[in-house]
Every structure is written in structure tokens, then in C-alpha cells.
Amino acid sequence: MLSYRHSFHAGNHADVLKHTVQSLIIESLKEKEKPFLYLDTHAGAGRYQLSGEHAERTGEYLEGIARIWQQDDLPAELEPYISVVEHFNRNGQLRYYPGSPLIARQLLREQDSLQMTELHPSDFPLLRAEFRKTAARASIKPMATSS
């Protein structure tokens, strides 16, 4: 049985660091014209509601994305990451946190591709539904388990 659910931890300080680095790597890869494949082996649900039961129970996002949300004096290196978070919170209120697959989808170019896998039986359908909402060229597969 899988017990880890990222929805309890979405937007925490580790996510801010991880997704900032992810954004900078993608931006660096885009400096060349050659298309690339982004593979996310632990994609999770894709999007997380910060006012949801799981996020509210731990409140970890309060020490992560909420601490830097709408600050004016952030380092330039945070700009690609923050712009994606802002895209999913257009009204200025921090309600949603994009996971790594949504960050990748937002930053990838037309010629790049995105492949995702997810093992958790509750998160895989959420991820699939998230990407059905758009015409994004993405491949989503459940992660196989060994018996």
C-alpha cells in the first residue's frame, strides 16, 4: 500500500527549491533550438488546492510558497518558477500549487514533449484529468509495480 500523498506537502519549502531548480533547468535546455523530452517519473496529481483538506492539515505550504508569494524583492532566478505559480493563481490569491508536470507543461515549447508516470492509484486519475483539460502533447502512464 502506498502511503505518501504529495497533496499534504505541496508548496512546502522543499517544493519551492525543487521547482525553482526544475524551472531553471528547463529554461537552460530551451537555450538550444533542439527539442527535448521531459520525463517526470513521480508526477503526482499535477495540481494541488492549498485550501484543501490535505494542505490545510499540515500547513506546510505556509513555510514555502506562501512566504514568498507576492514579494517584490525576490532573486531573478525565481522568476520562471514564480511566473508559473502566478499563472495558476491569476486573481492574486494563492489557491493552487502547480506540481512539476504542470510547471513543465507551462515552460516547455511547442517542439518539446512531456512524459509522466504516477504510481499512486488516487493520484493517477487526477493527473490524467488535469491533462485532459488541455490540448497539451503529453503522455501519461501508470507506473508499473513489480509483484
From TrEMBL:
One GO process term, biological-process aspect: rRNA base methylation
Pfam families: RsmJ (PF04378)
GO MF annotation: an example: 23S rRNA (adenine(2030)-N(6))-methyltransferase activity
UniProt xrefs under InterPro entries: RlmJ, SAM-dependent_MTases_sf
One GO CC term on file: cytosol
Top-level taxonomic group: Bacteria
Protein name from the UniProt record: DNA processing protein
Species for this entry: Klebsiella pneumoniae
